[in-house]
Write a structure and sequence with these properties.
- This protein is mainly α and 155 residues long.
- The chain folds into 2 domains: 53 residues; 86 residues, Cytochrome Bc1 Complex, Chain D, domain 2 (Orthogonal Bundle), CATH 1.10.760.10.
- It has 5 helices and no strands.
- Helix 3 packs across helix 5.
- The relative contact order is 0.10.
- Keywords: Electron transport, Heme, Iron, Metal-binding, Photosynthesis, Transport.
- This is Cytochrome c2.
- It comes from Candidatus Defluviicoccus seviourii.
- GO terms for molecular function: electron transfer activity; heme binding; metal ion binding.
Length: 155
């Protein structure tokens, strides 16, 4: 008995393999395109911001030493210390929900003036006894440059 072959079976089998292969190729090309676009967008964003991805905003400015603990951009995160965007003229310990403010700073009250910032940067412990900030900027010119830079960060 000779087997009767279904001539359409071979065509259907080849068609399915072709569709599967093309689907795989299309999926690969789309994925590669999305990855390439993502990398290009990330590189463009980093270039437009003038920094490498992951580097804190403010590096290379007068406030370079501040970005170790603080973020400087609008809506930036609170790190070890609070965000400094819009700090000049803002209420001291302004974000009451943040746990990191000391009682000394919370009780200080008022708004951050240039004179207050200058005193705080020079010696935070003298400005608000009991505060935990230990970094001192002893050079008056450096403090002046930091405060001038912070004044540019406004809402």
């Amino acid at each position: 008995m000779t087997g009767v072959r279904d001539p359409g079976l071979a065509r259907r089998f080849l068609a399915r393999r072709l569709v599967a292969r093309h689907t795989l190729i299309i999926t690969f090309l789309v994925t590669a395109g999305l990855v390439t676009a993502g990398v290009a967008a990330s590189a463009a964003w980093a270039a437009s911001a003038g920094r490498i991805p992951g580097e804190p905003w403010g590096r290379g400015t007068a406030a370079d030493s501040c970005v170790v603990c603080h973020s400087l951009e609008r809506g930036g995160p609170f790190r070890v210390a609070p965000n400094l965007f819009g700090i000049v003229g803002a209420e001291k310990a302004r974000d009451r929900d943040w746990y990191g403010y000391t009682t000394a700073l919370r009780q200080k009250g008022g708004t951050w003036t240039e004179a207050d910032l200058d005193q705080y940067l020079a010696d935070a412990s003298a400005f608000a006894p009991g505060t935990t900030k230990t970094i001192r900027i002893t050079d008056p010119e450096e403090r002046k440059q930091i405060i001038a830079f912070l004044k540019t960060l406004h809402r």
